[in-house]
Amino acid sequence: MDRRQSTRIPFKAPAFVVQNGSAFASEIRDISRHGLFVDMPAPSGAGGSASVSIILKHAGRSLSVTVPCSVARVSGSGIGCSCNELDPETLLFFSNLLHSSGMHPAEFLQAFYSYLDEQQAESN
């Protein structure tokens, strides 16, 4: 039985996971409204906490987004994390923005602030 509350979205990105005092280079396999799956070698057991830094890269530029998570499940290839602070729309927005054609950092920030204003207006 699948207990997942949200649809998974395929999303590949390098990541850095800190779990139980150990750090691992890894890769995000997918994201959802409430979590993500991280491919990683020798995952520890479920039930603990982890910090996942998602690294968005394009054309020599990078952006890192770090979210605290709890490890909800473990498989042979990685960990399924529950992340209450993960917002996939913002993550996808960052990824798309980073892939846009050569924005100056000030333009990047302006686009991000406009996005946040839109999100806030929608929630009111």
Automatic annotation (TrEMBL):
GO terms for molecular function: cyclic-di-GMP binding. Transmembrane segments: none annotated. It comes from the Bacteria. Residues 2-90 form the PilZ domain. It holds the Pfam family PilZ. InterPro entries: PilZ_domain. This is PilZ domain-containing protein.
